[in-house]
Task: inverse folding
């Protein structure tokens, strides 16, 4: 599978002939070699997207919608293949991969319909005989750069609204997990979208991603990934005043109030902490429990965490709770954060090490880990751990709990469990995060905007704001003559 570059409707190998190997993080086994695109390949892809822009942007929305729906019919026919590849390259249990692929197709279908509903507005001028029309028009060529944790889904969040708006794309899937995303993006080509509307390049992030960001052809950068790379992209984009949507890191707090229903809060906290091995930007990073319920919550949560099943074969065990970490670097961060907390006095209730059974020997595994006796300056209380780790701390008043939750550079998601409406509203207003879940552990809904405050990013994906992010707003002011003129 070395012809992984789709440039102007042609499948190609890299112009240098170079490839890189994608491995299974659960076993270390090689899965596939894919092309390592060069700067020249990237420039060709950008040029193809630029040439396709007049064709795609001027196509009636109804026709764009038809092709996008057709693409998802193509993809759904390959859903099994894509899901299995996703489990192999990422390690997540198969049921999670299937869910991701299905949801991604839903996102495209949702925005396909929206491409028929793009409308502006108009008004009469209030200084003489003028009338104004507000037009929404596509921004142009989009550079879409995505991470490995949801390589299909996070691509859909960009392609869906961008294609619906009339933008054309150069897409760069992540090097750790490019295979399922390539099948997804390929479906647009196979469904008959004009050549150059969706171009796919794989390869080194700083090299080809850097070219996608800095080349003047791209007018918008849609990026999900680390805060560090996001800041670099924002700096480069600023030099050419390009539009950016940046979905970056998070350190989501999970607040359990004294009146919370623990039968709901414990399993919901568990799922949002450990699913995808804690490698989700909205994963729970820190749990805060009101003191009266602290011991009860910690005991029940630790007990449940100790029973989670970690799989070394997500295809054979599709409903396992979690798989491996994606990379050795990610695993090392988790180890460092746990060691740091331990050295500063945290007590480990569960986990705190990699599993030792033989089936885990060649993979990048870490056990579900629960800690108490936390201090605010421990690394995992400040930084994004991005792993299967749950530190639990106590708070007294609601104000104190919210202050602890806000005590991080990030602001993507926050969760509050309470049965009191006043508490819920107060917390929703005071928490500094772009998404607040009240008695629900997922802030994602196709119709609702998703994005972060502070170091978690700029802009919103999904919902109407997710579509607006791919359009320019143009004011057309028209002076008309009256019969006497
Ligand atoms: P990166 O931000 O490095 O990678 C995300 C994407 O950006 C990948 O496609 C990558 O390509 C590409 N990229 C890397 N450098 C550049 C660049 N200079 N210009 C343009 N594109 C670039 O994240 P990592 O995968 O290295 O993960 C590191 C940490 O980031 C994680 O441990 C986690 O803390 C956080 N993260 C957050 C995510 C979120 O959902 N918000 C998702 C993933 C990571 P390539 O894969 O080829 O390097």
Result:
């Amino acid at each position: 599978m070395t012809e992984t570059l789709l440039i102007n409707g042609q499948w190609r190998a890299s112009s240098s002939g170079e490839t890189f190997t994608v491995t299974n993080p659960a076993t270390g086994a090689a899965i596939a070699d894919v092309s390592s695109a060069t700067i020249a390949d990237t420039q060709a892809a950008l040029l193809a997207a630029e040439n396709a822009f007049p064709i795609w942007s001027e196509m009636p929305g109804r026709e764009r919608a038809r092709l996008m729906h057709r693409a998802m019919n193509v993809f759904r026919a390959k859903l099994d293949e894509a899901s299995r590849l996703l489990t192999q390259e990422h390690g997540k249990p198969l049921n999670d991969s299937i869910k991701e692929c299905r949801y991604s197709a839903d996102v495209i279908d949702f925005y396909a319909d929206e491409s028929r509903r793009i409308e502006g507005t108009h008004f009469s001028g209030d200084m003489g005989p003028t009338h104004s029309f507000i037009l929404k028009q596509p921004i142009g060529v989009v550079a879409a750069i995505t991470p490995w944790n949801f390589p299909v889904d996070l691509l859909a969040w960009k392609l869906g609204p961008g294609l619906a708006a009339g933008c054309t794309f150069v897409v760069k899937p992540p090097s750790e997990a490019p295979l399922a995303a390539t099948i997804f993006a390929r479906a647009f080509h196979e469904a008959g979208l004009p050549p150059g509307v969706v171009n796919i390049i794989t390869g080194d992030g700083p090299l080809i991603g850097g070219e996608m960001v800095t080349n003047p052809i791209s007018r918008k950068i849609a990026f999900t990934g680390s805060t560090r790379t996001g800041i670099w992209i924002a700096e480069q984009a600023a030099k050419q005043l390009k539009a950016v949507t940046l979905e970056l890191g998070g350190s989501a707090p999970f607040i359990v109030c004294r009146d919370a229903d623990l039968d709901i809060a414990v399993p919901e906290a568990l799922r949002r902490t450990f699913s995808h091995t804690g490698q989700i930007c909205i994963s729970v990073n820190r749990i805060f429990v009101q003191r009266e319920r602290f011991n009860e919550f910690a005991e029940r949560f630790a007990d449940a965490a100790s029973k989670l099943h970690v799989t070394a074969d997500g295809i054979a065990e599709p409903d396992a709770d979690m798989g491996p970490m994606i990379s050795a670097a990610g695993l090392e961060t988790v180890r460092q954060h746990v060691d740091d907390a331990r050295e500063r006095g945290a007590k480990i209730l569960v986990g705190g090490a990699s599993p030792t059974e033989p089936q885990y020997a060649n993979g990048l595994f870490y056990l579900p880990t629960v800690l108490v006796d936390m201090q605010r300056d421990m690394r995992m209380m400040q930084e994004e751990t991005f792993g299967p780790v749950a530190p639990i701390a106590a708070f007294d008043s609601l104000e104190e709990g919210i202050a602890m939750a806000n005590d991080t550079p990030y602001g993507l998601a926050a969760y509050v469990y309470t049965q009191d409406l006043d508490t819920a509203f107060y917390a929703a207003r005071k928490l500094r995060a772009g998404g607040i879940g009240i008695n629900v552990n997922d802030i994602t809904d196709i119709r609702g905007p998703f994005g972060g405050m502070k170091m978690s990013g700029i802009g919103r994906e999904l919902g109407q704001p997710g579509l607006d992010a791919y359009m320019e707003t143009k004011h057309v002011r028209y002076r008309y003559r009256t019969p006497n003129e």
